[in-house]
Specification:
By secondary structure, the chain is of the alpha+beta class. 20% of the residues lie in helices and 37% in strands.
Length: 178
């Protein structure tokens, strides 16, 4: 039995969960999320918790059990607390600023890079080298943070680039003079 899949999901007060066939709708204080789940997975919505059941011990059902439970748990957490990813800009002249809801990055290129957030995602900039990507959908927050990081990955010689907060960059020794 899936250890993750068999755990019930606690539903906090003020959060409404509805299951219409293969579509799960979670509405909370921060917004609403909709997710389609596999037709074989059965959702049992109670007053204070949700449980996921699978029809058999087939390999596909075992793998979908934990996945479905975690997707629904992330939806519940997202509409109540939200998700965020922190990024740091490391390098001389690398900086970030907000213009309205758009993020403008100076990353050593000949032009500034403008990142427009999709619906439901917001940026905050602390100082001029810390960026916080916030939203209710964990997948979209992580994807946007990864896309921003990809604009200038941390390089191994000087460590310059965009990195996640707390990320350790493996450093290499440079050339030695002979």
């Amino acid at each position: 039995m899936s250890r993750i899949g068999k755990q019930p999901i606690a539903v906090p007060k003020g959060t409404d969960v509805q299951c219409d066939g293969f579509e799960v709708r979670v509405k909370g204080p921060k917004g609403e999320l909709v997710q389609r789940i596999h037709p074989d997975m059965k959702l049992e919505v109670g007053d204070e918790e949700i449980t996921i059941h699978r029809p058999s011990d087939a390999r596909l059902h075992r793998s979908l059990h934990g996945l479905t439970r975690q997707l629904v748990a992330n939806m519940v957490h997202g509409v109540t607390h939200g998700f965020s990813k922190d990024l740091e800009l490391v390098g001389v002249g690398y900086r970030a600023e907000l213009a309205g809801n758009r993020l403008i990055l100076a990353l050593g290129y000949s032009h500034p890079i403008v990142v427009v957030p999709p619906e439901g995602i917001a940026f905050t900039v602390e100082g001029n080298n810390k960026i916080k990507v916030e939203g209710i959908d964990k997948q979209r927050v992580g994807e946007l943070a990864a896309r921003i990081r990809r604009l200038r990955k941390p390089e191994p010689y000087k460590g310059k680039g965009i990195r996640y907060a707390g990320e350790q960059v493996r450093r290499k020794a440079g050339k030695t003079g002979a």
